[in-house]
């Protein structure tokens, strides 16, 4: 019910203002129109600038910082990232070099002295497996 009453009041106010505006001289109407356009232009400019500031402030966590400080932080983060990548690549290259230095014979790599003893006694283990399974 309040919405209907408010809508009726708003409509009556709009009609009254339109009637008053129609009775103004053409010179005054032109000046009002010009002032309206100027106000809209300033409002749009201010809201655009404010939106840009708010975006930058939200990006920086609502901390006011100089652009040079932000740039220095970004450069520092990039240097750290590249440094970590170079270190990881160097470490990976070293591990490949160590792997290449190991013997190529897989039997030598897999067998120790205990493994050789196990293989020497394989026939006994086969006989036990056949006897007791």
Brief synopsis:
This protein is mainly α and 133 residues long.
**Major beta sheet summary:** none
Outline the low-pLDDT stretches: none
Secondary-structure content class: mainly alpha
Q: Strand-and-helix sequence, N→C?
A: HHHHHH
Share of residues in strands:
under 5%
Shape: elongated
- Number of E strands: 0
What is the subunit arrangement here? single chain
Give the proportion of residues in helices: over 70%
Protein architecture, described:
With 133 residues, this protein is mostly helical. 86% of the residues lie in helices and 0% in strands. The chain has helices at residues 2-22, 26-59, 67-101, 106-110, 113-120, 122-132. The protein is elongated, with a radius of gyration of 42 Å. The N and C termini lie far apart (93 Å). The mean pLDDT is 77.
């Amino acid at each position: 019910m309040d919405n209907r009453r408010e809508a009726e009041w708003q409509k009556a106010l709009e009609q009254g203002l339109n009637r008053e505006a129609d009775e103004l001289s053409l010179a005054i109407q032109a000046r009002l129109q010009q002032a309206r356009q100027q106000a809209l232009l300033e409002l749009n400019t201010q809201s655009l600038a404010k939106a840009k500031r708010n975006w930058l402030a939200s990006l920086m966590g609502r901390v006011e910082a100089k652009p040079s400080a932000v740039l220095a932080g970004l450069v520092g983060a990039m240097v750290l990232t590249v440094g970590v990548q170079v270190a990881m690549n160097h470490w990976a290259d070293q591990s490949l070099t160590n792997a290449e230095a190991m013997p190529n014979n897989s039997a030598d790599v897999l067998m120790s002295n205990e493994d050789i003893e196990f293989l020497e006694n394989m026939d006994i283990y086969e006989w036990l497996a056949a006897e007791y399974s």
